[in-house]
Amino acid sequence: MTVVYRKCFPVSMVFVMGLLIACVTGCTLANDPINKVSVGRRTPCAVTFVMDGDTLSCDLNHNGRSDKPTEHIRLLGVDAPETHNSAKARHRQHAERAVDEPHAQEAKAWLTQRTLGQTVWLGWDVKPTDRYGRSLAWIYTSPNAPVSLNQQLAEAGLAAALFLGPNRQFERNIQQAEQHAYQGQRGIWKPE
Fold first, then answer.
1. CA-CA distances (angstroms) from residue 157 to 16, 113, 114, 178?
2. Contact by Cβ (8 Å): 124, 39
3. Which of 82, 131, 183, 189 has the fewest other C-beta atoms within 10 Å?
């Protein structure tokens, strides 16, 4: 009977390599503000651009621009009407003839008025990013604001409640705000 011996790394070498990989990965991730988030903690950011009623860009890295997908912030719990230049609207309407959905500009103007050029605070939930790399957050106008802009947008009738995945921290609040808007026939709930 022949015994075959394999050459193996000593256990200490495997440990050192694992530690080195963890350090390099951890050091890289630690420099990205999105990886420093925790549920309940708020992160300030300067709003540089409002894309539509539920998406904006922030300068999270404090470099004067928003150039990473994680610096594109998608408001949690709400779905505002799409503007003609959104990818979703272009896909639905065959690119060249894309038009705004009803109340899209109103929702964008509402969010722009409250955020553009301002510092807002991002409140985090369970999952901080979506499949596109955008940050998912509750947006507040001050570090101690009791109600998010997400909820206020739904209350104004400029967005419908939308919950996907585990981010449901304020689901009941958003649904109640949507119900108030619906009953008051505001925004998207106003009869045409």
1. 56, 16, 16, 7
2. yes
3. 131
Model pLDDT, residue 41: 85
Has residue 69 been placed in a domain? Answer: yes
Q: How far apart are CA 106 and CA 188, in angstroms?
A: 10
Q: 136 with 74: CB under 8 angstroms?
A: yes
Residue 168 clears pLDDT 60, i.e. is over it:
yes
CATH number of 60's domain: 2.40.50.90
Look up residue 146 and give its two tokens. Answer: 């009791």
Residues 6+ apart with CB under 8 A from 55: 72, 73, 74, 75, 134
Spatial distance between the Cα atoms of 90 and 156, rounded to a whole number of angstroms: 26
Q: How many domains does the chain have?
A: 1
Domain ranges, residue 127 = 39-189
The predicted-structure confidence for 88-144, as pLDDT tens digits, reads as follows 544 555 556 678 999 999 999 999 999 999 999 999 999 999 998 899 999 999 999
- The span from the CA of 112 to the CA of 132, in Å, is 22
Residue 72 falls inside a structural domain: yes
| Owner of token pair 């050459």 | 7
Dump pLDDT digits (tens) for 41-92: 899 999 999 999 999 999 987 777 777 766 899 999 999 999 987 655 445 5
> Tokens for 84?
């003609």
